[in-house]
Amino acid sequence: MTATPKISPARAEAFLADFTTLGTFGATGRGGVDRQAGSDADIAQRRWFAGLLEQHGLRVEYDRIGNQFGLLELVPGAPYVFVGSHLDSQPTAGKFDGAYGVLAAAHAAFELAERWGSGSASEDEKPRYNIVVVNWFNEEGSRFVPSMMGSSVFTGVLGLDEALATTDPWGISVGDVLGKAGFLGGGDGPTPVSCAEIHIEQGRILENAGNTIGLVTATWAASKYVVTVEGAQAHSGATVMEDRQDALYGAALLVVFARQLADRFPGVLHTAIGKLDVYPNSPVVVASQVTLLLDLRCSDEGVLAEANRYLEEQFAAIEQTAGVRVSRRLSHEWGINPYQPAGVDLARSVVGELGYSNQEIFTVAGHDSVNMKEKVPTVMLFVPSVEGISHNEAEDTKDDDLVAGLDMLTGVVARLAHGALVD
Ligand code: HGY
Ligand code: MN
Ligand code: MN
Questions:
Q1: Phi, psi at residue 289, to the nearest 5°?
Q2: pLDDT band with cut points at 50, 70 and 90 for residue 351
Q3: Which of 23, 58, 66, 317 places its Cα 20 to 30 Å from the Cα of 40?
Q4: What is the pLDDT of residues 57-76, one digit of tens each?
Q5: Domains of the chain: which residue ranges?
């Protein structure tokens, strides 16, 4: 295996030009994007992306949950190295989250197709496996809950029928959206042999340390709950206070408690309630029901269990105080699971040959690679986020870092296509 060559300046330029084009889909005019799964903007960007893949000789396919694949067949009949991320975004969010990893995956494949297709490749440089570029459907889980939906169905974590039947707040189903847009494929998708994903860090660790590449070793744990607070509708003026069973008062007590719970475990527990639906949400009515999504992230499984105990106690206290009933359903969870250490070593060898500053790092956010690493050996890489900002229109990563990440991803995928981690 020859040392890892750098990508050409022409490749970097082509990538940055395509990334600028990609940023126009769902552009908000404030530097961000709004292209939630199955939206018109998401459909448009998926069609543009299919064209880009086909222009470079990749075959485009979709599986039964609308995951988009660009197949680069190098070794007929061989399984595939998966490389990709997600194009869908949160509402009014950043244009780097997910989209960077999808486009970097495409240009890594284009670069390797050029390198190996030119006929100049020596015998030992020829790949043993194929490469497939992946745009996973609905990683963000904003319009359709849960997140990481496409890769969860692909890896068997979530049932296909359940996913297709999932509806958005307006009652439109995943199956409807994908069917109408022509993204519902018939098959299960290509057979994976290994996987790589690159993503913005969405935190400040790399930037604070002055490092360019993050070698992701494991995930924080995540527990996401749908919490329902049920009270009784009443006149907001005439009803005497002692008769009220105010669901919004109960929910508000929980919002404050959840936020303060994180302060008991600084740097170890992150909590948020970002979605809250009030019924009937009328100015002259005491709310009878509030549904909210409670998101817990934790770097220590014991602390997560302790936090859950505190929450159960608080639910009981809120029921007493506000005269309501509190129930919760687990909607999505994953543990503190490591990526394959051999994959981290592979990434460390490539980054050493390319000469980029780097460090090992955990991921707090979820990614499609969290699902894929349970199926095949998976390498997860980060590039820095400016000031750690993400899920925000001000999300930013410097061009030099985007290009360094593309260099890294190309080097890692080349090794995987030669059989690293599997042969
Ligand atoms: O849930 C997550 O962390 C991801 O951003 N969907
Ligand atoms: Mn993401
Ligand atoms: Mn995200």
A1: -150, 140
A2: very high
A3: 58
A4: 999 999 999 999 999 999 99
A5: 9-219+337-417, 221-334
Q: How far does the centroid of ligand 2 lie from the alpha carbon of residue 199, in Å?
A: 7
Q: How far is CA 393 from CA 13, 95, 361, in A?
A: 24, 7, 25
Choose the CATH number for 9-219+337-417 among 3.40.630.10, 1.20.1250.20, 1.10.579.10, 3.30.70.3040: 3.40.630.10
Residues in contact with 141: Cβ distance below 8 Å, sequence separation at least 6, in sequence order: 147, 148, 149, 332
On the question of a common fold for 9-219+337-417 and 221-334, the answer reads no
Give per-residue pLDDT as tens, 127-178: 999 999 999 999 999 999 999 999 999 999 999 999 999 999 999 999 999 9
pTM of the model: 0.96
- Provide mean pLDDT across the span 405-423: 97
Q: What angle do CA 221, 333, 33 make, to 5 degrees?
A: 90
Q: How far is the CA of 17 from the centre of ligand 1 (A)?
A: 27
Among protein residues, the one whose CA lies closest to atom 4 of ligand 1: 366
221-334: CATH topology: Alpha-Beta Plaits (3.30.70)
